[in-house]
Design a protein that fits this description.
20% strand; 2 domains; alpha/beta; single chain
Length: 295
């Protein structure tokens, strides 16, 4: 089995060695590993750090550099070089947990012939050893059902099957540099499922300059892609079985991004009578709250 690790990085030279060392600690498992790194226009010591790591010649590393275009464009470009049976993204501020590759290999061997799967989904822990979110209730599901029906609210790590992942990409709108990963997952969910394992494969550490800590700024700078995501949910399905608070979450965010894009909700294009009614009722208060939040 071969594993492709994709990392988009920007001015994280001080953290890349930690990720590298976590890869090395997992090499006691008989799998082939390639680490593909896209430097998204860093102006720190990233290139020197990677050069020094490559000189150790312990794993295959491909280092590329692009003019700053954002994480999603970086991952899209790295996909052209990924040759692994499984493809997993690992942010430069994250690193692999103990026994991560063993869990991934065992899951792959168990599931590699299941044609209805696009990926294997694992837990992420924080640095204190706490699960970021909840354990899985179902082994086979979709990312949409996981978050909108099972009420998951934490990050997960997905190892994608190459033959499925190569058919999808992060769809960026215009000159925007970020789009939620969930937009791509939603498209994949319409065709395939994920298989879930309650094993941690990644340790996550949120940085002060990261997306999670600056969500309003991310929303304001990338409203078109987010609007497309919530629009696609409302036009592709009527959300039968979705928990009511998650239905409200979708509609409230749809309104928020309509306002940020200076567009009115497209009620005619929506599926589901309840979605149309809630959108109509919540539009005015949502408009006011969005204007106040992003004034």
């Amino acid at each position: 089995m071969k594993l492709s690790i994709l990392t988009a990085t920007y001015n994280r030279a001080n953290l890349l060695k930690r990720l590298y060392e976590s890869i090395l600690r997992n090499l006691n498992v008989e799998i082939e590993v390639e680490w593909l790194i896209m430097d998204d226009g860093s102006n720190d010591e990233t290139e020197k750090v990677i050069s020094k790591i490559r000189d150790e010649n312990k794993i295959y590393i491909k280092y590329l550099k692009q003019v700053n275009q954002g994480k999603m464009a970086a991952i899209n470009h790295l996909m052209d070089y990924a040759r692994g049976d499984l493809i997993i993204e690992c942010d430069s501020d994250d690193y692999f947990a103990e026994n991560a590759f063993l869990y991934i290999k065992d899951a792959y061997e168990e599931s590699k012939y299941e044609k209805d799967l696009y990926g294997l989904c694992f837990l992420k822990y924080d640095q204190n050893g706490q699960n970021i979110g909840n354990e899985f209730k179902e082994q086979k599901t979709t990312m949409f059902d996981l978050y909108f029906k099972d009420l998951e609210d934490g990050e997960k790590a997905i190892a994608f099957f190459k033959d499925k992942r190569k058919n999808y990409s992060y769809e960026l709108e215009g000159d925007e540099k970020f789009v939620t990963e969930a937009r791509m997952y939603h498209k994949m969910d319409l065709e395939y499922k994920i298989k879930c394992y309650n094993e941690p494969v990644m340790i996550c550490e949120y940085q002060k300059d990261g997306y999670s800590k600056n969500i309003d700024k991310v929303f304001k700078e990338n409203p078109k892609g987010y609007l497309k995501y919530f629009e696609e949910i409302l036009t592709m399905q009527d959300m039968v079985g979705v928990h009511f608070k998650k239905r409200l979450y979708v509609i409230k965010h749809y309104i928020l991004f309509c306002v940020l894009n200076k567009k009115k909700p497209n009620l005619a294009g929506m599926k589901g009578f309840l979605n149309k009614v809630l959108t109509a009722l919540l539009y005015v208060p949502g408009f006011i709250m969005t204007k106040k939040r992003f004034k």
